[in-house]
Amino acid sequence: MPHERNETEDSLTMQRKERAPTRNHDQARPATLIDSVWRVMLRVAFRLARAWWSLRQPEHEGALVAIYVGSMLLLVKPSYRLEWNLPGGSIDPGETPHAAALRELEEEIGLTSHPLRPAGSACGIWDGRRDTVHFFELHLDAMPGLRLDNREIIAVHWASPEELRGLALTDAAAAYCETQL
To answer: Carries keyword Heme (predicted)?
Structure first.
C-alpha cells in the first residue's frame, strides 16, 4: 500500500523548503556509493555523539571561518545536519585555532593559503557540549573555486545579509552573525 502523506509530513517538508536557499546555491557532484555510505555513517555518528554530549556536556573548542565576497557570506551544508554552518570544525590537541581554521578550509572546501583575520569568539552550550568557538574572517575579491568533499560537506551557499535572517543556521554560525553582521 503506498504511503500517504499526512499534514505533519507536509508541514515539515514545507518548513525545510522555506529554510533551504534557492539561489546562489551549489551542490557537490552526484554522490557515489562510497560517498553515500560515508554520509550515512556521519549522520549516525553525529546523532550518537549528540546523545553522549547531552549526558556528559564535555568541553569542546572549534574554529569557524566567515568567507566574504563583497557582502555575500559563504555557508556550507554538512551532510549530517539540517542547518547551514560556516566552514570549520574542531581544534585538534596541540593545534592553534588559526591552524585548525586553515586545516578545515582545505579539508571541507579545498581552499588553501589564504590570510585569515581573527574575528572574536563565542561560548555556549551547543549540541550538548560546552563550546568555545573561535571565528576568523576571509575577505576575497572574487568567488573562489571550491572543491567539496561530498561526504561531510554536500553544498555551499552564498547568502546576503538579509537572507541570513531566514536561514536555519547552527548555533555557532548564528552567534557569529548576531555579533558581526
So the answer is: no
